[in-house]
Amino acid sequence: MKRAMPPVLSHFQAAVLLTARQQKEKVVAVSLDLGLSVTEVQLTEAGVLLPNGRLLAWTQVETIAANELGCFLVTEAEIEKIQIFSEQFNRLYSLMPTMGAPTMLISGIPMHRIKGTDPYRDTLTKIQAVAPVMGDVLDTTMGLGYTAIEAAKTADRVTTIELDPAVVEICRHNPWSQQLFDNPKITRIVGDAYDVVAEFEDGRFSRIIHDPPVFSLAGDLYATDFYRQLYRILKPKGRLFHYVGDPESKSGRNVTRGVMRRLQAAGFTQVRPYPHAFGVVARK
Fold first, then answer.
1. Is the pTM here over 0.90, yes or no?
2. I need a labelling partner for 39 at 20 to 30 A (CA). Which of 8, 110, 190, 257 fits?
3. Which strands make up the sheet holding 8-10, listed edge to edge?
4. In the chain, where does the domain assigned CATH 3.40.50.150 lie?
């Protein structure tokens, strides 16, 4: 069953509301789910009357408008910035709006490409790298779940792994992540991908999308022995996409060369750069 979500707003939606107020409009169409849909709301002297009967005060709208890096959950009593500190990993996660799907800041660093693209278009390039996406698919690092959600549109089943439970909680408040919880084709596993992958049976997955954090944060997910596990669980003729970062940067070029060399050592063939998605593709 699809879960009902409270409104979530960013400075983009707050700007629409404030402009409508300035123009003395009584009703305005605005998104209450970060751009996924549009809803009509009533404007009053005291604030914005939402469809659920909640009155969002103009001071609250102004607070949201002033924060360009935050997304805000509108609860019955207050507005709450969507952010969680993970004591387990000593990281602050927060949802950051873009012109499209939101990204997540990890201690202030965006987890998606946002320059010249948006997080969902970025996801589509990764999916296209291993098209057609079919059969059982593994998404090794869930994040906001966009890869798993998009893969599930054509795959039979999708398994996605997330290291930090705090990230799952961010997803619960992100309108764009709700299919992670609503789509029965998606299985979420909380754990270290390095350990979880070792438990899968041989030849289980037709496609693997490996989008690890930067090498300095997750070096074990770039190791030859981990790549051997990915090779083992991939079906014959299966395809792998491995995100590595900007191939035009010095670090990106170095990481790409190292990744390609280790993938080949692990048994993968047709290993080649896929610069359009800032990654590498390979086959078994």
1. yes
2. 110
3. 8-10, 71-74, 79-81
4. 113-283
